[in-house]
Amino acid sequence: MTNLITDNQSYVPAHLAIEAMRDNGYKNTAYAVAELIDNSIQANANYVQIICKEKEIAGTNRTLLKLHQLAVLDNGEGMPSDVLQLCLQFGNGTRLERNKRTGIGRFGMGLPASSISQCKRVDVWSWQDGVENALHTYLDIEEVKNRHLQEMPAPTKKEIPQIWLEQGVTFEKTGTLVVWSELDRFMWSKGQTLITHSELIIGRMYRKFLNENSLKIDFTTINETRLSDGPIHHFALPNDPLYLMEKTSCPEPFNNKPMFEPAFGIENYEKKFNVSYNGESHPIYVRFSHATDEARNGISTGAKPYGKHANSNLGISIIRAGRELDMDTTLVNSYDPVERWWGIEIEFPPALDELMGVSNNKQSARNFSDVLAMMDNLKKEQEKGTTLLDIIEQYKEEGDPRTPLIEICDFINRQLVLIRKIIKNQNQGSRSTVTSLKNEKVEKQATEITNQRKELGYIGSSDADEFKPAEQRKEEITETLIASGVDNTNAQIVAEHSVTHNSKYNFIENAFEGNAFFTVRTKGGAINVILNKDHPAFENLLEVLDEDCADNNASRLKERLEKASLGIKLLLAAWARYEDETPDGIRRDQVQAVREDWGKYAKHFLRLEK
Fold it and tell me: Does the predicted model carry a pTM greater than 0.85?
């Protein structure tokens, strides 16, 4: 029989469990630090200082700076002795009861869980009548494992170390100081690296507080070996994934003005749902935005600094009590570079934690994410004739606690479809889209091949117009494109480019009604190939391989290539089925002849690539 340590009857022997509890699911150090900021906000602090204390250590060839301790100082209300004694106890807190869920905290796990996930020792000082009267408590993992510390120590009056008193900005009449030491699980070893990686995450989490100026977050770096160099302060800026705020961390020119605009207008970009839960009604707000025309105007905007910034904020921002929990990417088409140009935010109160499935480390809303993942299946059910009300009623009868979220997620999914269409139609027909380098290349190659065919005696109906005066050709091309739905300005740009560069072909992206993937308009000596942006083939063949891929990783590029490959095969399958459904006889012979002739042309046009 296995020998077990049974010297006490506790369900959770602290000396055995403490090491396992260190793996509590924090995504990285920034999310763990956020738990301490939560506590500061809950204590009504308006200034939080995150102090990274570095220390010089001897490397192989040079002296290195290494993060030695991290402190979080606030000017909140501080804690009395009885609360301070429990602040490092797992699962205990002052807001566990349902009627006290009015703020950012709740679970009683944040301070101890986040601390031990990053370090072996945490010290807490708190004061309510001047820093000279600060009380102290601590948690030391090694002492717990060695059974030197079995119960929470009673707070004692203990002076705050001088270095924190000197470097702290806000030692006011009340406040709290948390110090992490023995940083054995930090993701980043230098203070500046921690700040660089944490600023965008923390700026996004607390953007509403930062934007309202109700909170300042001061990242401070100090070198313990060279204190005379002084501290380096860096204040967090809001990072708004809806890009509707001004004065944010978004790169120029959108650091001081919004990069997105409210979807469907300022009056309609937000929808309020009143959700009944546990006999009470609670509001859930959903907000939508998309990029402005200015943000999309130009070539490879996704590769610009502000485009890369938007790519780091993909997904639906889940907000609880004004603080972001997570960016859910369930509905994101990861292969599609234009996904960065929309923003969605859902905000709910702490009273709906169980409904939303909020984790105790406040990093996700599991139930909400699960219902989002059901949207494809629910859409298929609706296409079969089942109404949304029928689906909701079915889940209600089965006792599924997530039922109230189905209507909200369905609404989000439907609105996202509309927003994607708006984004797709931005810069429609513009030369900035048409003249990407690869389009210029294909236009040039197609022109060269056509010239070769003309030398062999093959004549097209558009060729005669090449001998008309240049201005007449420009006018005819412009009129043809305008008649096809391209706006006047961009039609003129395309015509100018075509005639000036002697380009036989122009590729224009434009949305138009009908089943055609593309249409051909010849005038002014040019062959204008107008691609239908509303056709599924555009999304699955062309758009998926379009520009804005400079910052894509290998897996995302692979996913996009696989989708394009699938799209080509499905396009061929569609033709094959077209032939299959064509009755035997003259019509079928004609269809097969067209395939044969097109194959000859394709063979000629594609051979140049070799």
Answer: no
